[in-house]
From TrEMBL:
Subunit structure: Homopentamer.
Domain Flagellar hook-associated protein 2 C-terminal: 224-487
Record function comment: Required for morphogenesis and for the elongation of the flagellar filament by facilitating polymerization of the flagellin monomers at the tip of growing filament. Forms a capping structure, which prevents flagellin subunits (transported through the central channel of the flagellum) from leaking out without polymerization at the distal end.
Descriptive protein name: Flagellar hook-associated protein 2
Parts forming coiled coils: none
Length: 498
C-alpha cells in the first residue's frame, strides 16, 4: 500500500474525496464479483444435489435393484424333522420337497489297528521328536545338540504332506492331513488310536510313519446315502447336499416334507424402504426446482458486509442463495425421468404384473408430483405370494438391451437414467458422476464462466488502480499549484507592504 501525505496546502481531505470518486468507478467490478459469488453458490448447490443423487443411486438403489433383495425365503418342515435338517438360502426355489431317507451315507474310514502308544497321558501337542516316536526318526548329520531330525513325507489320498518332527506335533499333523487331503483326521485319546474319515473315496495311505507308527491302512469303501426326493429314488455321496437351493442334511432314516416360500414380509419391507428412499430423492429435487428466488437479495460486497452484523449477513446470504436451481433444466428432466421410470410398463413374463399399480403401488395426487404410495398392501402381498419372480422382474430385470427398454425393471431403469443426469451435472458444474469430489473441474460450463469472471475482475482492478493513481496525481498537481500561488501571493504582499 502506498503511503501518501495529502491536503497540506489545500486543507482538503483528499483520501475521502478520492474514495468517494472511486465508488462510481468500482460499481462494474463489484457487480462482476457478485456474479462470481452467485456462480460459486450455484456450483455448490449442484455439488450438494450431486452428492444426494450419488448416495441414492450407489448406496440405496444399487442394493435394492439386486435380485438378492427379493430372495428372502421362509422354510418349514413337517414329518420326521429329526431325520432331515433343511436351511433356505437366497437361491432357494419356492416349492415343496418330500425327502425320504432310506439309509445314510457312510464315509470311508481308516483307523489304527491297535493303540499307537501305551501311555494314556500321551501328549499330542508337543513336537514329535519329544515323544516316544523319536526312535523311528533319522537324525540330521552332522549331529547337533539338542538333536534334530530329518523331515519326511506321508501320503493320504495321493496328497503328499511334508512333516517336520522337530516342530510338528501329532495335533498339527492331523490338522495338515485334514486341510490338505480333504479328510477328517483326529486322535482318540480314549482308545489311543488315529482315525481318518471322509474324502468321497476309499482312503489310501502311504509312508512308514502312517502305516507302521500310526498303524493305519486303507480305508473302508464309502457308501452312498439312499433316499427319495419327491418320490424319485436317488443317491448322494454325502449326507449334506443342496436341492433347488435348499441346503439339506440327512441325520437319520425317516420322511420329512420341506416347504419353501418367499418371505413376503421381508420383501414388502424392502419395497417400502425403496419407496421411502425414492420419495425422499424426488422431494429433494422438487424442492430445489420450486425454491423461492429473492431477486432483490444479491451477494453482498465487502463494503456492505463491513456495515452489517454477522447475523444479518447470514440471513441476507440465506435469501441470496435461495432459488439458485429454481426451474433448472437438468433437475426438471431428472424429475420427469424418475416419474417415467416408475410408470412405464415392464414385460415381466406375467401380463397381470407389468406395472407398479398392478401390485398395489401408485402415485398420489397431482399436487404431490409423483410421490409413490402402497395403496393396497393386500394386493402387493398377493402378488409376491402368487408370482414372486414377476415382482422381482418388475423391479430388477436387466432386459435384453433393446432401446425401448420395455423389459427393463423399474429399479434398473432408474439406476441407468440417474447416471445420465449425473453426467449432465458434471458437465455443467464440474462435479464427478462417480464420486463426491471436493475439487471442481475447471473445464465445466460454470468453471469456464468463473475463469472468465476472474480474468475480467483482475483487469477491472488494474483499471481501478490506474484511475485512483490518476486522481492522486491530479490532486497532487493542484496542491503544487496552490503552493506556488501562495508563495507568489506572499511575495507580492511583502513587496507592497514595504
Amino acid at each position: 500500500m502506498v503511503n501518501r501525505i495529502t491536503g497540506i496546502t489545500s486543507g482538503l481531505d483528499t483520501d475521502t474525496l478520492i474514495s468517494q470518486l472511486m465508488k462510481a468507478n468500482r460499481i462494474p467490478v463489484d457487480k462482476m464479483a457478485q456474479q462470481k459469488q452467485t456462480v460459486e453458490w450455484q456450483r455448490d448447490a449442484y455439488k450438494e444435489i450431486n452428492a444426494k443423487i450419488l448416495d441414492f443411486r450407489n448406496n440405496k438403489l444399487f442394493n435394492f435393484k439386486r435380485e438378492g433383495t427379493f430372495a428372502a425365503k421362509t422354510l418349514t418342515t413337517v414329518g420326521d424333522t429329526s431325520a432331515v435338517g433343511a436351511k433356505a438360502t437366497s437361491s432357494s426355489v419356492p416349492g415343496t420337497l418330500k425327502v425320504e431317507v432310506v439309509s445314510l451315507a457312510q464315509p470311508s474310514v481308516s483307523t489304527s489297528t491297535a493303540a499307537i502308544t501305551a501311555d494314556p497321558a500321551f501328549k499330542t501337542n508337543v513336537p514329535l521328536k519329544d515323544t516316544e516316536f523319536v526312535a523311528g526318526f533319522t537324525p540330521v548329520a552332522p549331529a547337533t545338540t539338542p538333536p534334530t531330525y530329518q523331515e519326511f513325507d506321508i501320503t493320504v489320498n495321493s496328497k503328499v504332506i511334508r512333516i517336520n518332527p522337530n516342530t510338528d506335533s501329532l495335533d498339527s499333523m492331523m490338522s495338515k492331513i485334514s486341510s490338505q487331503a480333504g479328510v477328517t483326521a483326529f486322535y482318540d485319546s480314549t482308545n489311543r488310536v488315529v482315525s481318518m474319515s471322509g474324502g468321497g473315496q476309499a482312503i489310501s495311505v502311504a509312508g512308514d510313519f502312517l502305516t507302521n507308527t500310526l498303524k493305519l491302512g486303507a480305508g473302508s469303501a464309502p457308501v452312498d446315502a439312499q433316499l427319495k426326493i419327491n418320490g424319485v429314488a436317488t443317491t448322494r455321496a454325502s449326507n449334506s447336499f443342496s436341492v433347488n437351493g435348499v441346503d439339506i442334511t440327512l441325520n437319520g432314516v425317516g420322511t420329512t416334507t420341506i416347504d419353501v416360500k418367499s418371505d413376503t414380509d421381508k420383501v414388502m419391507e424392502s419395497i417400502k424402504t425403496f419407496i421411502t428412499d425414492y420419495n425422499s430423492m424426488l422431494k429433494t429435487i422438487q424442492e430445489k426446482l420450486g425454491e423461492d428466488k429473492f431477486r432483490d437479495y444479491t451477494p453482498l460486497t465487502s463494503e456492505q458486509k463491513e456495515a452489517m452484523k454477522d447475523k444479518d449477513i447470514e440471513l441476507w446470504e440465506g435469501k441470496a442463495k435461495s432459488g439458485l436451481l429454481r426451474n433448472d433444466s437438468i433437475l426438471s428432466a431428472l424429475a420427469n425421468t424418475m416419474r417415467s421410470s416408475m410408470s412405464t410398463p415392464v414385460e415381466t413374463g406375467n401380463p397381470n404384473y407389468k406395472t407398479l399399480s398392478a401390485i398395489g403401488i401408485d402415485s398420489g395426487s397431482y399436487l404431490e408430483k409423483g410421490q409413490l404410495y402402497i395403496k393396497s398392501e393386500t394386493k402387493l402381498r398377493e402378488a409376491i405370494e402368487k408370482d414372486p419372480q414377476a415382482v422381482i422382474n418388475l423391479f430388477t430385470q436387466d432386459g435384453n438391451g433393446d432401446t425401448d427398454r420395455s423389459d427393463v425393471g423399474v429399479g434398473e431403469r432408474l439406476y441407468q437414467d440417474l447416471m445420465g443426469s449425473l453426467e449432465k451435472i458434471a458437465k455443467k458444474a464440474g462435479t464427478s458422476a462417480f464420486s463426491d469430489m471436493s475439487v471442481f473441474k475447471s473445464d465445466s460450463d460454470l468453471g469456464k464462466r468463473l475463469t472468465d469472471l476472474n480474468t475480467r475482475i483482475a483487469k477491472g482492478n488494474e483499471r481501478l488502480a490506474d484511475i485512483e493513481n490518476r486522481y492522486y496525481k491530479q490532486f497532487a498537481a493542484m496542491e503544487a499549484a496552490m503552493s506556488k500561488y501562495n508563495s507568489q501571493s506572499s511575495y507580492l504582499a511583502n513587496a507592497f507592504s514595504s
